Amino acid sequence: MANDNKKAFVEHITPRDENFSQWYTDVVTQADLMDYTPVRGSMALKPYGYRIWELIQAEADRRFKDTGHENVAMPMLIPESLLQKEADHVEGFAPEVAWVTHGGTEKLTERLAVRPTSETIFCTMYAKWIQSYRDLPMKYNQWCSVMRWEKSTRPFLRTSEFWWQEGHTMHATAEEAHEEALQMLHVYRELCEDVLSIPVFSGQKTEKEKFAGANITYSVEAMMQDGKALQAGTSHDFGTNFSEPFEVQYLDKDGKLKYCHETSWGVSTRLIGALIMTHGDERGLRLPPKVAPYQVVLLPIAFHKEGVLEKVKEVYNTLKDAGIRVKLDDRDYVSPGWKFNEWELKGVPLRLEIGPRDIANGVATCARRDVNEKFTLPLDNIAKGVQESLDDIQKNLFAIADKFKQERTKDVHNMQELEQQVNTGYARAMWCGERECEDKVKELTSATTRNIPFTQEPFGDKCVCCGKEAKTVIYFAKAY
Amino acid sequence: MANDNKKAFVEHITPRDENFSQWYTDVVTQADLMDYTPVRGSMALKPYGYRIWELIQAEADRRFKDTGHENVAMPMLIPESLLQKEADHVEGFAPEVAWVTHGGTEKLTERLAVRPTSETIFCTMYAKWIQSYRDLPMKYNQWCSVMRWEKSTRPFLRTSEFWWQEGHTMHATAEEAHEEALQMLHVYRELCEDVLSIPVFSGQKTEKEKFAGANITYSVEAMMQDGKALQAGTSHDFGTNFSEPFEVQYLDKDGKLKYCHETSWGVSTRLIGALIMTHGDERGLRLPPKVAPYQVVLLPIAFHKEGVLEKVKEVYNTLKDAGIRVKLDDRDYVSPGWKFNEWELKGVPLRLEIGPRDIANGVATCARRDVNEKFTLPLDNIAKGVQESLDDIQKNLFAIADKFKQERTKDVHNMQELEQQVNTGYARAMWCGERECEDKVKELTSATTRNIPFTQEPFGDKCVCCGKEAKTVIYFAKAY
């Protein structure tokens, strides 16, 4: 009975082109990544979803440490008075803060915000910790969850609570802080492209779209299979906007007291949403091997027959010893076809079937999740063959997504072209730089500016909206 | 100037026997593990303190996964109605809950608790996730912070917010749940003894001291250098106490709907407090190599001289490549003596000095932090010598602490002996099992029952307090 329920479950994924949004929800829930909870707008990450996050964390954390950052843990509650110290910041975040007003039975004299982000508490502590130029740079990061009281929510994309990392760094000079912000954007691009196989547009946000309190916000923007944009990571240069009100100062070599220059940068469990909408297909998830909880699923075929289970276990141990994440599915109460469906739904990159005939031939029958193609790998030196396949899948998923991204990005020369293009993808346009045109494009097309690319390559001299002199190339897209 | 400040700083550690509590605070702050924050009772974990936690986490997490547990993430806010479903539980936790009452400008219809622990939300989700016996056991864990609105706080030992892991598991039978609770206590014992070099007393808590809502609570109890007990980890068998009100049921093979049997278990950043108070000395921390952020500090001596820095860097790379966590301290603005003090304060297990004379002799001059003893290691095959020293330090710290624990544990036969013994350590006593005697001992001596050892070895037949028939051996101690 349980099986029949599940079977029906697996088969009911809404086709992408019929209803992309429903397809997404179907995949998220049926692949067992998360579940809804009784807490408004908050999700629970189930083991399979959380394991993906752990793998993303490990890849990101290693890169943070390699670039000289250290992890810390800050309080999750932030006194209201701290939030109010930077005017733009409080204006941006106050409407979506969850407030703690009571401790036990006692009413608090000051409300405490469940952190929506931690600039204010980091600055408070940095002001204590930094004295001299010798303490700089101070480059800390924390892994935690934050809370933003969202009106409407979608799993991984927008939830009241979400899991993320937030790096906060202090530097002696404006140049150094600026370099740090760019460096971390580069780390995010690498994380997206090399680890998640998600190609991105790197660039600078407009004044309108930048973070509340920042001088400059950089972003990496991904393209989902419905052509919409998903902001995958941001990196901010604050200058001294926070260090002045929070008095984060250092004594320089010249004996003068100076304000520190600050950055912050973050990626979140949103990246899991990006993974799904970049790589998923009609059969469910397709996971890049580097973040797949199981890179290989191993299925014994006709495993009541002598020698099958022994051989499969031998292969299992060989792959495990080679550092490959492998799952042996030896359930005897579901059919192989059932298992195929389930592991395809869960996006396992490589499936190996081993039955009596395979063993006789000295091979494993393989199926890659990225392409519809069966092949065999010799059981001798199986780990090498598997690793090569995984490497190829990792690259191929990127290539597929990159081709899609290029096909769905077009230069537009007028509002008509822009309006049409943002229905299917990104519009590259010339822009005068005025907020007015940005607002007008949004009003007419519901597309927003994504970012201003570092490499400009202008293709005209007139603003796509007002026709006046263009100052920059910019990407427009509808966004999550 | 900065140096002079710091120098004075390092030297001002209150002697342990003068004021143990002040010694603890001095070490915690001066070794740069944490700092106080403007949030009542909440601390910030600084990089050095957080790195110790990361290393503890890695060791624990590996053991959880090896015993078949998976990580998940649950919402940090829990609706008040969920907390109220289990009577003992809400009674135990309600007085120390931080309440969220507003989201943005909107007053919530139901208050939300910042989780003090997560039994209630886990049970809510398990009720959705578990259908049949095939789904069992379900063994999940989460790493997070929790909040308990404490009146008086001490770094790592008792803070409003603290970081921990909480495992929550569901089983088909009472026996299985009971085995799980014991298994995880065993994991905690191993974590304390093999990783943290902290010997512990394993046993069962009394009815009075058990967790709010549990049938049985097991604990591992450590002994600090002032003879006081510190509860290092707990593991609870809930039976069906939560699964009944939360309706966590499964369809068994026999077609009947049955309640699941539950456990939960946790260790927290308290373990860092235990580390300090078990191993620290007059010069500061002494860290077991397995959780030392730096296992080795490498100091170049007279490093303006030709070849010194090159050689030291070569040794640095050799050790790093061998997987040893090594810090090269090549600051040229502080003296070697200064560096000695600082790294001793921070508890680095092994110091290597390399100067022109050492290089000429083909050795490194070494100092172990656990014993006051200098020796040399040949530069050829230095990684092997270092690893052997680290292994020995790890074992020796345990041996020192274990000797202390044994010396400070005594059998007591009457209240006078008990009262005396709990001033310096643990009292092993015979107990009638009645709450009345437990309360009386606490009232008269301020010592509490720690736990009932698994191996009993009774040494009398009369209760230490009332003189009536004794039912069990039990440990009493004053506790953090």
What does this structure look like?
Two copies of one chain form a homodimer. With 480 residues, chain A is α+β, with helices and mostly antiparallel strands. Helix content of chain A is 35%, strand content 27%. An eight-stranded mixed β-sheet of chain A has the order 3-7-8-14-11-10-9-23, sandwiched between helices. In chain A, helix 3 (47-66) packs across helix 7 (174-195). Mean pLDDT of chain A is 95; it is low at 1-9. The interface between A and B is large, with 60 and 60 residues.
* Total number of helices of chain A: 14
Helix content of chain A: 25-40%
If you average the pLDDT of chain A, what whole number results? 95
- Tell me which oligomeric state these chains represent: homodimer
Distance between the termini of chain A: 39 Å
Shape of chain A: globular
| Residue fraction in strands of chain A | 25-35%
Low-confidence stretches of chain A: 1-9
* Sheet with the most strands, sense and barrel status of chain A: 8 strands, mixed
Strand order of the largest sheet of chain A: 3-7-8-14-11-10-9-23
> Care to count the β-strands of chain A?
24
Radius of gyration of chain A (CA) equals 25 Å
Q: Quick one: which chains have the greatest interface?
A: A-B, 60 and 60 residues
Structural class of chain A: alpha+beta
